[in-house]
Amino acid sequence: MDLGQLEKALEQALSSVSDEAGLEGVRVEYLGRKGKLAEAMKTLANLPEAERKAMGLQANEVKTKMEAMFAAKQSAFETQKASKLAESEWIDVTLPGLALEEGHLHLTSQAIEEISDIFSRIGFSRVLAPDVDWDWYAFESLNIPADHPARDNWETFFIDQPAGKKGRVVLTPHTSNSQVRELEKGKLPIRMINIGRCYRRQSDVSHVPMFHQFEGFMVDKGLSVAHLKGVLDYFAQTFFGPTRKIRLRPHHFRFTEPSFEVDITCGVCNGTAMVGLDKCRLCKAGWLELGGAGMTHPNVLKAGGLDPNEYSAFAFGWGVERTLMMREGIKIADIRELYKNDLRFIQQF
Amino acid sequence: MANILASYDWIKEHLKTDASVAEFAKKMTDAGNSVEHIHDVAEAYNGIVVGRILVVDAHPNADKLRVVTVDVGKKVQIVCGGLNLEVDQLVCVALPGAKVRWHGEGELIELKEAELRGVQSFGMICAPDEVGFEKLQAGEKMIWDLTNVTDAKPGTPLVKALGLEDTLFDIEVTTNRPDAMSIVGQAREASACGLGKFEMRKSKFETSGKSEGKNGKMDLKVSVKDKDLCPRYQAVVIEGVKVAPSPWWMQKRLLLSGHRPINNVVDVTNYVLHELGQPLHAFDADTLEGQEIIVRKAKKGEKILALDGKEYELDASMLVIADAKKPVAVAGVMGGELTGTKEGTTRLVIESAVFDAVSVRRTARTLNLYSDSSSLFEKGLSPEATTGAIERAIELICELTGGHVASVIYDARAEKYKPEVYPYDAKRISDVIGLDVPEKKQKEILEALGFVIDGKKATVPYWRDHDIEDAIDLAEEVARVVGYANVPSVIPTGEIPVTLPDPKIVWERKLKNILKGAGVSEVYSNAFVSEAILGKYKIPLDAASKLENPLTDEWVYMRPTLVPSMLTVIEENQRRFEAAALFELNHVHHPRKGDIPSEDWRLLIAGYGPDGGAQAFRYVKGILERVLREAGVAAVSFESGGADDHFHPGRSAKVIAGKDMVGTIGELAPHYAQAFGIDRRVVLADLNLDHLLPHLGAGKRYQPTPEFQDLIRDLSFVLPERKTHAEVQAALVGVDPLISSVSLVDVYQGKGIEAGQKSMTYRLSLRASDRTLSSDEADAVMNSVGKMLTSDFGAILR
Known about the structure:
The complex is a heterodimer of chains A (349) and B (798). Chain A has 349 residues and is of the alpha+beta class. Chain A has 11 helices and 11 strands.
């Protein structure tokens, strides 16, 4: 059989093959070690020198073609086989995955982690301060005089025990008691963040008697409102996203001067105050209140043993729960649910 | 915090401005007078006009309705149920398309032509509360009679007829700024914000010391017994007063500002309060016994019937205004009903005084009696403000009531006024703001706010004498008016303090995340507990810090342990969830004598399972072991027994790390479960994190990965049930150094195993560090293991 015939014969044989066993038979018959192609190649050796060279080239071409023909058929068989696999080994992929035990961190913990991380990147380290503390740290040293309403029995919780040198024992209504405690450590400059429990004498759908605040406090030389603004902008854009804007609205707190409220553009109406044709129900004119901030009052620095002419400081204190809910757009109709520990609530986060 | 409703029209009496509403709102907000809402007054009155009643007919099908023909520029027929309809009366007519509030309740509703009991009605004749004047009372089923309010022609829009083209700003005012709780205060702020020129309008009546003395016909005795609580008391007598409703312009101003018009005397006091921020009170002079006013502390048990119609019992801490015999007002809070102005009153005593802020606040709080006056006084008012207010009141009362001044202006004051002066330093102000504000600009701002700058000194205007307390306050005044939007935003540079992270903070976070990874959910319980809860858990009351002023019985003590709150959580969730693993990581408080409570840092893991409890102990122990292993605690052991009586005596153990007891694990004793209403077995692991802290992370050591393969052999045997796993495991490990680890595969009791016995299966890993073990070597080791089990434990190999 000459080479051209051989090629045609293989084409024919392949076209009539119907299964893998048949394919293997064809392979042995034509391409095998003792197959027809090998036989034909052998005869070339007997040809005269001049003829042999030309025939050798032709033979190699034919060999390549035949191998390609075979590979194409083989691959067609494999594809066919794979398509059968889908049929023969089908499973219901919509069945749920095997249940692994799933734990959940409380929303408050999640917020605390995230807030600490954001501030640690600009050098603010988290510290701890008591949540049941002396009057001195919670009020007196913060320029809040004895007759201030916050120190009345109907605003703040007190512990039923005799007053000591630093006053009565109070359930801190804010995390700011950490300020003078930190100053007393005597290490400057200070960049701290205190995240802790606070207590206020109110309980309704928007207030819990126990909640969490984070307090930022920075003490150094030459600090100004511009620096405070820088830190607040950094936090707001990191936590809420770069499209949100903040504004400082003048306000009043005893332990800062100047003081302001920090507002952020509302995430629901994007600061437009309108949702479609209706007024946005979440915000006030496109803004949401985040919390308070200000330049630390000179009397606070003095209480902490610093000369306010030499050092300056700023502080901010925001509700952890509130800040988180504001970002997530979580609208909890009754904020007291946060601390009721219904697992149906906890397992959502 | 409080809000003021400020009419732009009224503000403009004191401010020359052509600023738009939007510009006014923005600039005021930026400077700290937050405009929270803007109401366009006229907007609500589209389609509401003045009408004249032409005919009032009976309704053919309804006794209580009338068919009225009204001239509203054209004749229309309206069905109306008002009881006071009269021909020629001017009324307020809402035409179809207008929005009204039916009977003053619910949402606004758009009017349509309607058929009422078979008669067509083309609109509605309104009562005041149906068109936004809820505080103007016309009486039940009475329509608003405009006959004496306007002389506008029928068909005139109500806005025009009643002068309602105005804008109301609802402005939040911070507690330190009672001066801004007034029209004048807002006008002054606006002027400082560059919105226009502020002009204090002069009263037509001006006192000049004692010159009014010659008018004095009534000799009133005024004395202040407690000048600390009443630094200034001014009073004047006005005679010839005719009490009547105020004219519409006055009523309108009050209504738009949120006050209820009462009569022309009381209205003036409210008007001046809103305009100037100084509360006033008017007494009926003829009801004051002994023609005397005494400002004194109340006597214990004294009572007063206040203007709200309720009787209040006073105590000796409260300041009152009294006549010769009885209290006639609770100072700064509320006047007495019996001595107030009413129809027929002809002589008045007008009071313009200042009372101590704290005293007013505490009195109002104790009596649970609040008023616009008390909310201003409790923020601290200046004794200098009373004169302007009494002058304005005299002017208005004389104008509205036909009365005239009949006494000197009495003026009892503690001391001569000395304005406060603070150092002024322009550079420091710029430094604090972080923006260079030229001195000229600073002065402009401060002077517009009323400060007097003289070189390096700033004199505080009297209306700010309570809130400006320090030189630094001047920086805030400049900063807020310059606007924080104009201050650059700068990330602070400078030294970053090097502080080692507090290990508590580090480990709190790690442990929480390990627990979460182990499938445990975190709870946050209230830090307070009730006496009942402490009782249920048998904690002596003196072991917990008690609140002096709890809000409710539920929250009275600071919890000294996390357990009771956790049990409450379990009780609430047990019927919703078959199984649960929970933790709380927090500190609890223990009372200390002469010190703040100590903080005890705890981790409590709790669990219950679907099988009702048999495996609960191992479930929670498994979590605990995993947590400790992952947290790198080496050498953890469990020592059975020794737990307190909160735990099941046979199912509890001490948790030991190294040689330290770090906590307890055990099943909650059944009678405590019962006390908390828990109907399944709950296992608790209660750890002291302060004790655990030195062990955390200490146990993670590098060990080379073994070079040669382990040989694994499983072994089952039956032995007496009281032989513990700990004993067996220790013995197995000790048999031969080739045994590299021993782990329990299964424990079984039940069918096929004799009572009192149990079957255990262990997996042993055998390894040598220098060669691959041969099967023969392993068999030899297993042989010794078998012998040891038989001789030391009486075990029968299976």
